[in-house]
Amino acid sequence: MFGLGSRSRKNRSRVSLGVAGAVALLAFATSAQAAPYAYVANSDGDMPGNVSQFNVGAGGLLAPLSPATVAAGSGPQGVAVNPDGKSVYVTNLQEDTLSQYAVGSVGELSPMNPATVGADPGPAGLAVSPNGKVVYVAASSTDRVQENVTVYDVQSDGSIKPRGNVKTHGQDPQAVAVNPDGKSLYVAQCCMDHGVAQFDITSNGGLVPKAPAWAHISGLAAGQVTVSPNGKNVYVTSYVGSTIYQFSVGAGGKLSPKTPASVQTATCCVGALVVSPDGKSLYVQNSGGFVYQFNVGAGGKLVPKNPARVASGGGSLGIAVTPDGKSLYVTTTGVDQFDIGAGGKLSSKTPATVPAGSGPLGIAVNPIGGPASATVSGKTLVVTAGIGNKDNLVVTRPLPGSLRVTNLASGPYTGSAVMAGAGCAQVDSQTAKCNANGVNLIRVSSHDEADKVTNSTGIKSSLYGEKGADTLIGGTNADTLVGGPDADAFKGMNGNDQLFAVDLTSDTSINCDGGNAPGSADRAELDLLPRDPNSVVHGCETKVRKQPVHLAHAG
Known about the structure:
This protein is mainly beta and 555 residues long.
C-alpha cells in the first residue's frame, strides 16, 4: 500500500510514497507481543538502505529499538507488516528485490533466509491480504506490455515465494490496497491510462480483472490508494496535484465516483494517505509541509476539518496510524508524530519529530495492539480480544447457521479489527461471520485493556476477563463469567449462570440476572468481605465467598 510518484527510477527515492489506510485496516494479529512497533524504510538514493525500527511507547511516542536500524537492499521504499504481526516486507526499488524479516519478541527485525526475494522492475507499493497468506507488489517500472503486479505466497515461516504476475492494462502501477473483506485489490497507476485498476481476489489469492478493469480519474496520475475500514470507500491521490479522488465500492467491489468525484487541498502535492481505524477521519501528506485532515462524512464523502491542515516537517513521504487510532506518524527528514484528539484532529506530540535514517520514505506500524480474532475449533467458537485496545466484542446469531462477531467503537470502547480464522470469513475489518453449525459453546477472552464482551445468542458461553476493568454480559442460555484481576462488571442475563468474581478486587457490579427471563439457580463465587459487598451483588440465588486460587484466567 505504498507508492512512488515518478517515472524516473533514479529520482523515485525522494518522491511521494506512503502507507495507505490498509496498514491500519489489516491490523489483525494474535501474537503475544505487548506493544505495537513502527518501521521506516530509509532510502539514500542508489546506496544500500536500511529500516529504522521503533517501539510505540506510552502516549504513542516513538523510541528506537536496539539496534536502531537493520540493513535493507538498495533504495528501500515501501514497508508492510503481515497481519499476524510476525513478518515485515520491504520493497527495494533500485535492485528489484523485496527484503523479508522476522519480528522478534520485542519488535526487532531479523533478516529471513534468504534475506531478499526477486521482484519485477521497480517494486514500490505492496499490500498483504487480510488472512496474511498473500503479498501483492506493484512493479512501478513496467509498462502496459509487461506484467506489472506480482503475487507472492506467504510460507508457514512468513517468508514469501513468487507465484506469478498479472497485468493492470495501465502503466507504472504505484500503489496497491486490499479491501478489508479480502475480495478486491485496487492499484493506483500512472502515467498513461491513469486511474485505478480493480481486481477480484480469488479464494486462493489470485487476481482476476473486474469488468470494467479500471476506474478513471481526471488527474494526471494516480499516486496513492487506500480503502476505508468498512470497505465501502476508496480514496486516491494524484501525486502531481492537490486532488483526492473519492469512490464508492459497490456490488462485487466495483468502484464508482462519488458526487463530487474529488476534493482539493490548498497546496500541492498530495501523496500518502490513511483512514483512521474508526473510519471517521482521513489524513493525507502534502509535500508542501502539511498534513491535511478530513472528516469522513455521510456516504464516505470527505469534508475538511477545522483547521483543514496542520504543519509537518516538509517533504512528507509516508504516513501511518496506530491501531488504537490515537497516534499518527509522517515521514519527513525524520518521523513527525501527532496525537489524534477529539474529533480526529491532529496536534504535535513532544517531541514533534524523532530521528530516522537517511531519506525516510515508507512507514508501517505493526498491528500488535489492534486486533481481535474469531475461530471455530470443533464445537466451540473461540473469540479473543486484541492487545492494547478497549475492545467491544459482540457475538450475535443473525441466521441459524451463522454467528457474527463484531468489534465496533461504542462509548468508552474503541473497538478494533477482527481476524477471521478457521471456520470464519471476513465481512469487513471489524466483522467476522462464522459457521454456527454444530457450535454449542462460545468462548470469549478479553485482554490487557478494559474490554466489553457480550454474548447476544442462545448458545451457552464462557466469558473471561483479563487485565483492565472488563464488562462481561452473558446470553439467554447458561453462561459462565470469569473475572480478571481488576474491578469488573458482570451481567448473567437469562438462564442459570455462574459468575466467578474471586480475584482479591472489589468488582463494580455482579448481577446474575439482567435479562427478561432470568434463571432461578444462578451462582456467584465472591471475594471474602469487605470485597465484593452485598450491595453490588444482585439476582444470585447462591453466593459463596472464598479465598482466590488464582488471580487471572490464563487465556
